Model the fold of this input.
Amino acid sequence: MKPFNLFPYGSNIHFMRLRWVSLAIAALLMFVSIGTMVFNTFRDGHFNGAGTFNYALDFTGGTVTELHFAKPADVDAVRGRLEAAGFHGAQAQNFGSSNDVLVRLQTAPGKAARTADDVLNAVSTPDNPAKVTKSDFVGPQVGKELALNGFYALCFVMIGFLIYISFRFEFKFAIAAIIATLHDVSIVCGWFAISGHEFNLNVLAGVLAVMGFSINDTIVVFDRVRENFRGMRATPEEVMNASVNQTLSRTIITSFVAFLSMLALYLFGGESLRGLAEAQIIGVVIGTLSSIFVACPLLLWLNVTKQDLMPKARDDAALARRP
Amino acid sequence: MLVYGRWRTIVAVLVLLLSALYALPNLYPQDPSVQITATHGAKIDAAFRQKIVGTLQQAGVAPKAVEVQKDGNLLVRLTSPNAQVRAADTLRDSVGSDYVVALNLASTVPDWLSAIGARPMLLGLDLQGGVHFLMQVDQKAAIDKRMEAYAEDLRVMLRDKRIRYEAVERLPDNSLRVTLGAGADVAAAQALVMKNLGNLQTDVQGNVITVRVPDKELTQITADAIEQNVGTLRNRINELGVAEPIIQRQGTDRVVVELPGVQDTAQAKRILGATATLEYRGVVEGSAADALASGNVPPGARVYYRKELGPDGKPIPILLSKRLIASGDQLVTAQSSYDSRTGSPSVDITLNSVGGDRMFDYTSQNVGKPMAVVYIERVPEVRKGPDGKEIRTTRINEQVINVATIQGVFGKQFQTTGLSSPKESADLALLLRAGALAAPMDFVEERIIGPSLGAENIQRGLEAVGYSFLFALVFFLFYYRMFGVITCLALLLNLLAVIAILSVMGATMTLPGLAGIALTVGMSVDANVLINERIREDLRQGMPPLTAIAEGYKRAKGTIYDANMTTILAGVALFAFGTGPIKGFAVTLIVGILTSMYTAVSVSRGIATMIYGRRRKLQSIAI
Done:
């Protein structure tokens, strides 16, 4: 029985010939992404960290309104009416008894009272009137330390990659892999900065998980590069090309399956999973492309050679044997 | 050759069985319930249970069960959330302040499963809701505390610069009156205050300097206090091991805490609102009893009471210095332990450098003199007023738990004994570690909160997660045929193992968390893809099928190892981020990848061996 293939075997596409074009495109994408984030941050003429992304309720805080209904309230209907009244991303939940509903919203500060009335108008119906029992500001769910922790986490992971990859592969591989990963993460972030799509904690989790996918993909290709450098008699460019071609079917299958899973989440998962899935979809596409078009060209650019991957100890031993 | 050792088969079967067993509790629903815990030495026994059953009967609430649990708590299981709220309200009124009454969701997992440590994953605030506490910050206490600190700063400052003063007192209008000694340099003193406490206003009349705290500063003090309290609460909840809570500021002086399905809500409540801390003070010579009798307490001293009772059955009074040597605020770490000599419960304390220096200075100057440890706790009390309204008051409980002679000089590390039980020392250590509350907080509201996502939303989310998983399975069946079946079996075992491990770890499952499981399991197929592609490659190069399978597994192993190690590194960084869904996502990622390394590399090989291993003359394989 003939195997079923998504991609023909024995492909021999000359990926490395395109390396200056692909590196230029990658640099441009990265520049645009980071540029937009910087522009958003300084849009008001001074540093304003809240402007970088369209942050959601969990980052900004907002108002909380407690409502008491005359009869048990249908929370899903309340949500629907809030959405219809233009309160995007409003969170409604039962609170204590089935007659009480708690509504959380994102608002500009200084408008708490108006919001409470607006909410009341939106959710109250003639046959089940509601009244506001309490309305207050709520702070963000995440502390200010999140940004700092994030920075530390990023530094930690980069140092971790550097040490691990240098140890298992070689320093040049570590540099290339790290740049490719940063490239992917910054483009996904850039997409959220450019599109202005809502950025909540789930999106942040999604963006960070891109890092995992991206490095995984890059390492698989590098693994084959390492193997071929040791086994093939060819120029670095040929080795690189052969390695990408040999791993191409695996790369496409894995990415395709991951892409399909995220697409299911994006299409059917509803509001709460959309941002997460969106980040992941972009991450999978960019992460797959970057292993081929960014990480490998970078390796060539860094002048990786067969000698880099030869065990150093053997050289010492050979030297010692000389008279 | 393709072989799979007997012991490996046994391990694989064992993993399958254990995974299934520990994933099982997730199939049992939870009961809405009310948990009652005794505090301050009160007891929960059969008689108390009888009383509760009676009270519930009177109120017309029919419980599903009333159980005294092994840890000494009473659990009232109810049939609906509405009955739960009614029961909690009734019981709270009837049991008094010696018991903590808290809403809870109790597991219905059978005892034999609980006995082996199997428990269900908790559902997050978005899927199931949880308990909602609203806490009010006592702003006046925050200001009081800061004023005391200013007064102490002033005393230390004047003493250091050798400016003689008679008294530093607090006035009711948020100002401090500094009375200098005769002949002291008033101008120098004022300049000193201005220099060190520039945010305060000073006013001089004769030898009296009035230091006023401006209104803007007062607002700042309360704002800072709430900010610090939110941080402290976050630490405390982390210490309790509750995952994915919501802690946010509400309005000017309140903090909302929402916890998803907590095991022991009463414990959470006790720890959240607790204000216990320690203070170290020098003992002032003289008889406290005489001072009390004459009303003539020496200046710079205050009467405290010891924990031990005197011959008259009352706590023994003792005179302690108003000057604080160190307090729980200056602490770096605290660990509960046992005193090596007496075996009594104690707390090992490490102070920060400021506290350590002060402790060192004090002990080096006072060797041979006694020093006291004061345990301070604020106990909230709710009474019904004459008009039926609830009156909230608090009693501050200050107790000298330990007076010891300073044997030698010590700095920032030492041990404090005198605590009555290991539980008390563990709780105190937790509170000290999590940081002190800048101002005490009282519970003003406690309710069960429904899921923050709509029923439809949850339904869609769960379906999508299911679909995404199904997509992967169908694709592999189609693409790799027999090896697709093997891949799918490995994938399903991986899913089961991830759920089992997360359950045992007590993880909280949110909708994004579930998506994370699907994504992780989906990503972990990479290992199988690598193996299967290697086998195909080897087959194309003309290897015999059995050798190709064996070689494929062997050669893909190194790749899988390197690729997964780096992904785990990324997961660890995510975990270090440490906030809500991100942390959950990280745990899922790490667990999923670790299990997939086993299922994809070892278990799938076992299955392949089972299918093909005995067929010596195998011509072709379906891959």
